[in-house]
Amino acid sequence: MAKIFVEAYGCSASFADSEMISGLILNGGHTLVDNSSESDLNVIVTCSVKDSTANKMMYRIKSLKTKPLIVAGCLPKAEKNVVEKFSGNASLLGPNSLGKTLQVINSALSGKKQIALEDSDLSKVGLPKVRLNPAVGIVEIANGCMSECTFCQTKLSKGDLSSYRLGDIVRQVQTEIKEGCKEVWLTSTDNGCYGFDIGTDLPTLVNSVVEIPEDFMVRVGMMNPMYMPRIKEKLIESFDNDKVFKFLHIPVQSGSDKVLHDMKRGHTAGTFREIVKKIKERFTEFTISTDIIVGFPSETEEDFQKTISLLDEIKPDVVNLSKYSARPGTDAAEWKQIDAAEVKRRSKLVFEQISKLSMESNQKWIGWKGKVLFDEKTDEGIKGRNFAYKPISVEEKVEIGQSYTVEIIDATVKRLIGKIAS
What we know:
CATH class of the largest domain: Alpha Beta
Distance between the termini: 49 Å
Oligomer: single chain
CATH topology of the largest domain: pyruvate-formate lyase- activating enzyme
Number of helices: 13
Number of domains: 3
CATH superfamily of the largest domain: tm_1862 like domain
């Protein structure tokens, strides 16, 4: 029986995979350790969404390969040759191959490289897990997506949409709550198309989850605007429940319809505007998070200015900004790229704009008083979230999973600062 170190990067689905890999390791009779210096074998669950992330993965792979190593997650599936270049002896485990986890571990421990990148029919719902955060249950509701974005490598890694059965997901949520979670994240590559392949949809799932008669909160994960017109009205209704955080992550990526067409996003800037308008008509306080890519190969200065204008018009509360990076195997990687200095200039302008928008959004909460669930450990201490999923820090000592009434007394670009009122 071996001592195994597991390290994870990327999106919430990647962290969920690492929790399940850890659960399978314990079920297989092995031991988990907190750092690679104590381990007999290392496992790294990788992400490949950006160049900067992939470069970090390569650095970590080189650092961890002094012992038997398993490279899991998206990177080995999307860029097998690159991983093997940096660690030729590492075993590889794909994001849809978790059923082979113990087999790959046993091979790696005996000095034999094993490659398990083919999809298995194992559902990720109901697998044993070791939570990274005892207060948060990450529940994957589907694998893969229905999009064909020209910049994204995730489709190469995860393939077409495969939704998990609604009843199985509800039972998994019940397990998370029974085991002490106060917050449940419903996550997948694209929550917006959940269920389209099995005759259901996301609002139906959310309505089923909130019927569980316990005290917990639900965070509905990222959904692309492309499929939201199909479910928009029902989804907004499903959010009209106190158990659902008033928060949506809707990546628009660009304010230019031409660029969105070249990205094969399947939506327009108008689609995004309409979704946000409907949400704000229904809820007075609601956190909108979005993503922006600057420097996509076909983005002109005029296209870029349309993105700036869209952000000024919509004023999203959170904007995740990325400089475009050409990912191997994607269509856009073959196109003529924009000069790096120009991409940097555009990125700086958007960064300054979103910092201003975030500060304005956060300052509006000063004076608010209400319930906050403390759900995350950070370098600055324990952070909580209110009903609109706004990040809140307090000076008082609190424990993960506790809730308090908090009054907001100040704000920064990244968070609200409060004091416990009760």
